[in-house]
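ok so I'm stuck.
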Amino acid sequence: MPDATRSAAGVGIPDGKPVVIVGAVADIPRALAHATVVAGQFFVVAAIAVEVSDEGAGAWIDDIERLDALLRSDMVTTVLIAGPVGSGVMQQLTDLAVLHGCELLAVMPTEVLAEHEPVVVGSGDASLIELAGHRRHAWAPIVKRAIDVTVAAVGLILTAPIIALAAIAVRLESAGSPVFRHERVGYRGKRFLCLKLRTMRVDAEECLRSDSAMYEEYRKHHFKIPEDRDPRVTGLGRWLRRTSLDELPQLWNVLVGEMSLVGPRPVVLEELEMYGREKSVVLSVRPGITGAWAVAGRQSLGYPERCSIELRYVRTWHLSGDLKILARTLWVVGRAAVSA
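replied:
not stuck anymore, here's the structure
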């Protein structure tokens, strides 16, 4: 592969918008000669070359760490894609735009992914495609967090008697703490203790790790064991799970900022590996009490379908989508409670 990075500090003028150009070796000069660059609207910090196959599939960006570092700094606010780069590279760049909130532009022609909302900006020789799938209003995360705090606080107050009664029932059924604290991987990779009302024996984790056949079934069924075959689940625990009452303590996780009302469901470290290269994407948002996968039939959808659903949520997140998921969750939980 040719030299992946070339400095282009002499192109444009210093007060232009700082940009990194990404594209095939043959296309980078075309981007450097684009009217917006020549006119000084962009100040090219670096150009990163990628190999594109004859089929246009595109390889993953080898110098992804440097590009990520540039976007994390204040040096770069925009990525300019120099023509076709392949769907793999395009997905990488779109994910980086989501992670860092940067502007994603492309010299025509280029690929457009399903989550993009392409808009042609400029005119004539100065036209570019703005791939707007990454765009989020600056206030949207603030509103989301405000909703989380408000609903979690009110929810804890209203459900406190229910949580207390359920905790007493759990304690009466079996010895041990009625609240189960399980380590999960959360926002930006930070570990936290996810709270639930205990639905299993207190030695459930030790039982799982010491029984090789049970552990194999746990992995085989996407890091869970079918409830009707799991000897660790208590009678009351099965009812708590069907009504989702065991999840109520997670309102505290939401209140303290470890979780959100809506987001990808929190995962253990073993599950995170299922996301491969895209694990940083799913960790770019707070995990949720409910989410797109949770209302899409989570008992029947395992990996890799779960990864696809959770990643699609992160890449296309918007407030109205969260409200739809919350409404869907209330309907699903209500139906389950009636049939429990």
